């Protein structure tokens, strides 16, 4: 009897040690396999030893409560497919301690279908059953709920408690099969307060991936940083809440246990086209998103690999903001706010200082995985160095240039094509609308007291926006886009 007590005590201690280990949660955007050479990223490029959890993004949902594979050729082995799910889960052979999860949702999936499914107890129960079967069939260790967002984007107030019912039912079934349940959530109080009962959801989720980025971007009319750590003294109102520290403290104050809070960091930057090249600081006027990069090919967003390669070419002025603790760079009319090795080192120190559960990054395929600017995976290795005792990465010189108080005027304009802006009058009502000239492009129209805020989005390569489902779909299945 004493022997068995000792064994159980030892197992409990091991479980406790595993729970206390800092997590490094690596999201993988599966559409990156379609990018051009230099940015094309395959599952075989993933270093699983550098991630405690790997999350494959994304699958979808339908109104009957079924889990839907969004890219069967890429995800499955059927019909000579690439078997993304299978190859992703085989990464555990290289790193047996790494756990693999499948994520459902994402921005493009929207909220309406999720709202409908969780509102119906019968359909919700069917969905829970389908999720368990899906994870078992494809050999995932767990499931990540990335509903963006309950009670927003076409959702309804009842979503807040229906979301809790969903998590409770998922966790009940997951515990029977040893599956992991996590979620990706809105970070800032103005959004999170609309969507979440934080104490309740914290009971059922193993960990919570707080998306502490996208605080500012080209949907605004002035420059702003993607993921500032702290506010500026001259900010006021809601702007004081649009930073990492304010978001984390809101979640903690609202009842999220620190060990379950996984701090999100961006492996990409938000880019703008300046309205006036001589006004190039924070809150400078802009005329639209920054030019698309050669790999991600999305105006207003650049992967860190694209940023570091561009900075390496020279001609940029780099400013490290003393209050926000993150850098931005400008060249001609192009302006980028991003994170680098130095800012991530400070954010990892922040995680340790508050004893948070670890770091999550979006997403692994936009790190400098080819090592074109120095060592391979500099950002991911920075997370490991601070949270798991890895080897520190030295910042490369191009991204650590000193602040220039009187920068020289550029001698030439950027060679990239000018950024595009949403067509005038594109918004007739709140919701999504496809670009009239490019089926790959769509916009979200948000009604702000009679004035539309317009956000521009691009479907992954090979897909177009389907106005019937408000999702990206294969071109041959969408009328008017053949």
TrEMBL record:
Keyword Hydrolase: yes
Alphabetical list of PANTHER family matching this protein: CHITINASE, CHITINASE 4-RELATED
Pro residues bias (residue ranges): 405-421
Family: Belongs to the glycosyl hydrolase 18 family. Chitinase class II subfamily.
Reaction(s) this enzyme catalyzes, per UniProt: Random endo-hydrolysis of N-acetyl-beta-D-glucosaminide (1->4)-beta-linkages in chitin and chitodextrins
GO molecular function: chitin binding; endochitinase activity
Signal peptide (UniProt feature, chain positions): 1-17
Any one Gene Ontology BP term: chitin catabolic process
Region named Disordered: 390-424
Organism whose genome encodes this protein: Lasius niger
EC number: 3.2.1.14
Matches recorded under Pfam families: CBM_14, Glyco_hydro_18
Domain Chitin-binding type-2: 424-482
Keyword annotations of the record: Carbohydrate metabolism, Chitin degradation, Chitin-binding, Disulfide bond, Glycosidase, Hydrolase, Polysaccharide degradation, Signal
GO cellular component: extracellular region
InterPro entries, per the entry: Chitin-bd_dom, Chitin-bd_dom_sf, Chitinase_II/V-like_cat, Chitinase_insertion_sf, GH, Glyco_hydro18_cat, Glyco_hydro_18_chit_AS, Glycosyl_Hydrlase_18
Name used for this protein in its record: chitinase
């Amino acid at each position: 009897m004493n022997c068995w007590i000792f064994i159980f005590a030892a197992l409990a201690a091991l479980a406790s040690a595993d729970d206390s280990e800092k997590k490094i949660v690596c999201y993988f955007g599966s559409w990156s396999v379609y990018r051009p050479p230099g940015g094309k990223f395959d599952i075989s490029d993933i270093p699983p030893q550098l991630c405690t959890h790997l999350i494959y993004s994304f699958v979808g949902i339908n109104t009957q409560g079924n889990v839907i594979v969004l890219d069967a050729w890429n995800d499955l082995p059927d019909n000579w497919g690439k078997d993304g799910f299978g190859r992703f889960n085989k990464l555990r052979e290289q790193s047996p301690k790494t756990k693999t999860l499948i994520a459902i949702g994402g921005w493009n999936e929207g909220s309406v279908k999720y709202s409908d499914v969780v509102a119906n107890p019968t359909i919700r129960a069917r969905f829970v059953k389908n999720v368990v079967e899906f994870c078992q069939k494809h050999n995932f260790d767990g499931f990540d709920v990335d509903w963006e967002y309950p009670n927003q984007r076409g959702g309804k107030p009842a979503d807040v408690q229906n979301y809790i019912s969903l998590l409770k039912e998922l966790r009940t079934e997951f515990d029977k099969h040893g599956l992991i349940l996590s979620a990706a959530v809105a970070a800032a109080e103005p959004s999170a307060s609309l969507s979440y009962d934080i104490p309740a959801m914290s009971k059922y989720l193993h960990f919570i991936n707080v998306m502490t980025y996208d605080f500012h971007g080209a949907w605004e009319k002035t420059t702003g940083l993607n993921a500032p750590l702290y506010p500026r003294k001259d900010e006021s109102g809601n702007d004081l809440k649009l930073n990492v520290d304010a978001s984390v403290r809101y979640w903690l104050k609202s009842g999220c246990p620190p060990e379950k809070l996984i701090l999100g960091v961006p492996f990409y930057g938000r880019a703008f086209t300046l309205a006036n090249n001589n006004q190039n600081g924070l809150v400078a006027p802009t005329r639209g998103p920054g030019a698309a990069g050669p790999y991600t090919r999305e105006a207003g967003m650049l992967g860190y690999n694209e940023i570091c390669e561009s900075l390496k070419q020279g001609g940029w002025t780099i400013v490290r903001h003393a209050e926000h603790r993150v850098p931005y760079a400008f060249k001609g009319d192009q302006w980028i706010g991003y994170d680098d090795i130095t800012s991530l080192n400070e954010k990892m120190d922040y995680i340790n200082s508050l004893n948070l559960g670890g770091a999550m990054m979006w997403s692994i395929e936009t790190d400098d995985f080819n090592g074109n600017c120095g060592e391979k995976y500099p950002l991911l290795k920075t997370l490991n160095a601070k949270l798991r005792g890895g080897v520190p990465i030295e910042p490369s010189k191009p991204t650590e240039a000193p602040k220039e108080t009187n920068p020289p005027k550029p001698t030439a304009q950027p060679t990239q094509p000018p950024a595009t802006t949403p067509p005038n009058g594109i918004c007739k009502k709140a919701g999504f609308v496809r670009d009239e000239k490019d089926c790959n492009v769509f916009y979200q129209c948000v009604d702000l007291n009679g004035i539309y805020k317009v956000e521009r989005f691009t479907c992954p390569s090979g897909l177009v926006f389907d106005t019937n489902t408000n999702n990206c779909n294969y071109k041959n299945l969408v009328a008017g886009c053949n």
